[in-house]
């Protein structure tokens, strides 16, 4: 059996993350799938970007910096309240890569890895240690 659900998302999305009873789209929207027969929109974050699940109650998201001249932010999210509980500015080398970071993975502790494409059109792997994100 399959269930098609219309109007749960504000726009088309093809990149999602699943954890427990929620599905997250990189544009910030979260769908509650605890009842697979009746999924519903749980809420949305005020920002969007690549996400990694550090734990069921602590998600990490790479977002653009409100100041476009500064490097992107790595945010620690509260997935129940749809808020950022803290953030850290990524190193300048990430900003100089010429594109938004994508495809993030949580490495444990204070570490994340993600990809970014530089102006030379090559994709680079970044590994960042950010103590503010540690549990």
In words, what does this structure look like?
- Helices cover 3% and strands 47% of the residues.
- The chain has 1 helix and 11 strands.
- It is globular and about 45 Å long.
Average residue-wise pLDDT: 83
Helix segment tally = 1
Task: Tell me the series of helices and strands, N- to C-terminal.
Answer: EEEEEEEEHEEE
Largest sheet: 4 strands, antiparallel
Number of strands: 11
Separation, N- and C-terminal Cα atoms: 40 Å
Oligomer: single chain
Shape: globular
Which sequence of strands runs across the widest sheet? 1-2-3-4
Estimated structural class: mainly beta
- For the CA atoms, what is the radius of gyration? 15 Å
Helix content: under 10%
